[in-house]
Amino acid sequence: MEILLREGKVLPLMEEFYSIQGEGFHAGKPAFFARIGGCDVGCCWCDIKESWDATKYPPVSAMLIAEHAALYPAKSIVITGGEPLLYNLDFLCDQLHQRGIKTFLETSGAYNLSGKWDWICLSPKKENPPVQEILPLANEIKVIIEDSSDFDWAEENATKVGKDCFLILQPEWSVRDFIIPKIVTFVQSHPIWKISLQSHKYMRIP
Length: 206
Hints:
Helix content: 25-40%
Strand content: 15-25%
Number of helices: 6
Structural class: alpha/beta
Order of helices and strands: HEEEHEHEEEHEHEH
CATH architecture: Alpha-Beta Barrel
Number of domains: 1
Largest sheet: 9 strands, mixed
């Protein structure tokens, strides 16, 4: 089993479901979601802390994940976590692309990239910054804003991504009422950024 896990033939799947992308550049689009267990980035405000311990989730065949994704009308999958780049995702992406499914990655970028992706959403975290190789490959950078110091972190990372990367700020959910006015003011003064809200939470869907 260790060899299969190392090769990415099996992955500790926390959950999978068909829903609507609630945040970021592709908000509002339907997609199949696969949440991979395991994360050591340790964001204090993480709303999926139960994903951190990968040992809670028995390894599931990556081929089976691809087969499940293929059952749904929207031929796209969001691989999220946890931190999915803790694992080799080459095999999973190959299986998905063989089935005509577009691959979307959500990652902190703290680990080296594996897999072939149609879209990379990079959400850099101060606790464990992204590795250099992933920054120019990001299609969007989504920075979570909890307090005013996070604007500096956002600006720092914006200088490291490609010129065509979409720049997105998102309020940390638990302080949204406090921080949204500050984000609005910042974006008005820095129009290269746009605002993302976690619309799936307002819609009360996964």
